[in-house]
């Protein structure tokens, strides 16, 4: 039976699904806003386009060329950037999932199992893709290797942000702190049941009100300890 963080295959699937969704949105928006070569020529003739000052993004499909010119390119870039931030950082920060993670049955949680992990932590873990993506010509290679070689399956972004990716059924439950836990984490006597809910026991309080809170095997209780 696998522990809740052994979901690397699902994580790869989620990345592929999410990347396809974002790519499709960006492409559809591009073609909705783009001008054809004939539009560009017409704009040059009418004085609407100045080649010396306009910014461009061109895409050739066979014999056809589609372009975003001037402010259209700026607007497209702004919209796609905002949507990217909302999708990759804010959504998982507030919900614990993206569409890809929802489909593959995984969630982003804090080191103690609290879900969602919060926008701040998800911003950090996404910015750290700059390290996980290395060496770039083989995308995600560093993150994949790092996640395979530590006991909590953290990529670099998770290590820095203090997050885990777990099966959806384990989200919100205490996750035992093993050898690969963040510095300062206390293992107590906690044990994670690999195939299901964590065993009833005292765990670090995910609400941060006390040092310990009692997990009855299915939900957090009001019983706390200093």
Core attributes:
226 residues; three-stranded antiparallel beta sheet; 42% helix; 17% strand
Q: Can you put this structure into words, describing what you see?
A:
With 226 residues, this protein is α+β, with helices and mostly antiparallel strands. The chain contains 8 helices and 8 strands; from the N terminus they run αβαββααβααααββββ. Strand 7 and strand 8 form a beta hairpin. Helix 1 packs antiparallel against helix 3 and helix 3 crosses helix 5. About 8% of the residues have low confidence.
Short structural summary:
With 226 residues, the chain is of the alpha+beta class.
Biggest sheet architecture? 3 strands, antiparallel
Number of domains: 1
Mean pLDDT: 83
Rg from alpha-carbon coordinates: 23 Å
What would you call the shape? elongated
Could you give the topology of this structure?
Layout: H1 8-33, E1 35-36, H2 37-46, E2 56-61, E3 64-69, H3 71-95, H4 99-104, E4 106-110, H5 119-127, H6 129-132, H7 141-148, H8 156-161, E5 163-167, E6 201-204, E7 212-215, E8 220-225
Antiparallel strand pairs: 1-3, 2-3, 4-5, 6-7, 7-8
Helix pairs in contact: 1-3, 3-5
């Amino acid at each position: 039976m696998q522990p809740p963080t052994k979901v690397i295959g699902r994580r790869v699937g989620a990345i592929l699904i999410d990347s396809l969704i974002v790519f499709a949105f960006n492409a559809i928006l591009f073609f909705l806003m783009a001008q054809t070569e004939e539009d560009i020529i017409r704009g040059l003739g009418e004085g609407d386009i100045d080649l010396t000052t306009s910014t461009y993004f061109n895409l050739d499909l066979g014999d056809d060329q589609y372009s975003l010119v001037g402010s259209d390119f700026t607007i497209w870039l702004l919209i796609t950037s905002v949507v990217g931030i909302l999708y990759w950082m804010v959504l998982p920060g507030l919900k614990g999932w993206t569409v890809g993670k929802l489909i593959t049955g995984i969630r982003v949680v804090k080191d103690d199992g609290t879900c969602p992990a919060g926008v701040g932590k998800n911003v950090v873990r996404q910015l750290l893709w700059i390290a996980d993506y290395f060496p770039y010509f083989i995308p995600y290679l560093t993150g994949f290797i790092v996640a395979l070689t530590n006991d909590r399956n953290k990529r670099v972004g998770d290590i820095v942000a203090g997050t885990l990716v777990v099966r959806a059924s384990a989200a919100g439950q205490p996750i035992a702190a093993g050898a690969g836990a963040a510095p300062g984490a206390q293992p107590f006597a906690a044990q994670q049941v690999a195939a299901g809910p964590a065993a009833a026991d005292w765990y670090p309080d995910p609400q941060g009100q006390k040092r310990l809170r009692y997990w009855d095997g299915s939900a957090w209780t009001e019983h706390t300890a200093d």
